Amino acid sequence: MIRLQHIEKETYRKILRLTLPIILQNLLSAAVNSADVVMLNYIGQAHISAVSLATQYASVLFMILYGLGTGVTMLSAQYYGKGDLRAVNAVEGIALRFSAGTGLLFAAAALCFPEAMMRVFTPDAELIRIGAGYLRNVSVAYLCWGLIETYLATLRSVGRVAVSTALNTSAFTLNIILNAVFIFGTPEGSPLHGAPGVALATSISRLVELILTWIVSARSREIKLKLSYMLLRSKVLFRDFLKMAMPATLNDVSWGLAFSMYSVIIGQFLGEDMVAANAFTSLVRTFGTVLCFSVASGGGILIGQLLGDGKMKEAENGASAVMRLTILTGAVGGLIVLASTPLVLRFADLTELGKTYLRGMLLINTYYVMGQAVNTTLIAGVFRAGGDSRFGFVCDTIDMWAYAVPLGFLAAGVLKLPPMWVYFLLCTDEFVKWPWVIGHYRSKKWLRNITRENAVE
């Protein structure tokens, strides 16, 4: 009994050691997004709405890179636990091929076709003009992001989360400073006033982060950012990456696109007041989910390393510990959303109708956070640690595209339900899939060692 308690305490200690830097990193990321909204609040509701819609493309790119990074974590964490660094380098190289190409594609689209990209979300000419200026200036950030995120995912997979956090901290801090410079230091009517200035701040900070990443890489003994890794040959690892990372990537892209469709529904059918209220709601929800999403990331890394080292029972106990922490942090997240509601309503420069919408949306998110916490921890953390990414892809795709998105279009576009009823229906998506997700967790089909001998040719 004493031995079991010692093992449980050690498991929690390891999870927290991995999780705390990720919490800081996620908080800083949320702080940058909040800084955008806070500062643009002084410019006007149109700039907030335009940036809220334009950043949906960044959300889709993030989902792609997050899925690729998950593939890196799934394989690299287990191979690192096994002690095979050559395989870790090869996995990083495979991910770089995909992430660099994807970042280039998004950058080219944002630079060349920003107006067309904005028309997907809104018919409002002013929002299209403001959002197009934002997309042009943020294109450089898209180009850098793929390289940065692949390397940081590799660092996290081997447990070097503090280094990853330090790099993100530098970029986020610079981003906030530059936001203030461009928003408050440029005169009204300037090409960099408002949203375009925010985008330029993002691009500069990402470019600086890429330079710092190269410096860290040069000083690292084990994990480096080398484009030559893309030339490492391993048919086995490439097949495993496609088999495990591609479902994870498609899962995140499918979910991200579907979640972006929520913005399409709100922007096309529910009006600017709902768009602006949704921007503030998304920001507050991000802070509410920081703790539980960080636990999912840190716990997934630990479980993957244990599985790669062949410690199956310890990995199972680790998953149970992660789930207990998830329930706790999900409840805390809901309380954070609830406690912040009066402050957000007092601060938000919205119309009275917009504030009414915002109050109701925040109330819904006090419990919606728990739905996201449980599903993200299991699908993106526990299941993927054992290489099981296919289940999440199938589950999320059916849930979002066969249920939530059609329901939203039906409610808003056909039935013309009141905006808050439409939003409430959209926020049932996480709870609909609970029975299948929790059932899969209890089946233990995800509990696998996916490493191979002599993986690199």
Task: Please explain how this structure is put together.
The longest helix is centred in the N-terminal third of the chain and has 39 residues, at 2-40. The mean pLDDT is 87. The termini are far apart. The chain is built from 15 helices and no strands. It has helices at residues 2-40, 45-82, 85-112, 114-119, 125-157, 161-185, 195-219, 235-270, 272-308, 312-347, 352-385, 390-414, 419-426, 429-432, 434-443. It has one domain. Helix content is 84%, strand content 0%. It is globular and about 60 Å long. The protein is mostly helical and 457 residues long.
Secondary structure layout plus pairing:
Elements: H1 2-40, H2 45-82, H3 85-112, H4 114-119, H5 125-157, H6 161-185, H7 195-219, H8 235-270, H9 272-308, H10 312-347, H11 352-385, H12 390-414, H13 419-426, H14 429-432, H15 434-443
Helix pairs in contact: 1-6, 1-9, 1-10, 2-3, 2-5, 2-8, 2-9, 3-5, 5-6, 5-7, 6-7, 8-9, 8-12, 9-10, 9-11, 10-11, 11-13, 11-15, 12-13
Quick overview:
With 457 residues, the protein is mostly helical.
Biggest sheet character: none
- Total helices: the number is 15
The low-confidence runs, each spanning 5 or more residues with pLDDT under 50, are: none
Order of helices and strands: HHHHHHHHHHHHHHH
Radius of gyration: 21 Å
* Portion in helices: over 70%
End-to-end C-alpha gap: 46 Å
Strand content: under 5%
Structural class: mainly alpha
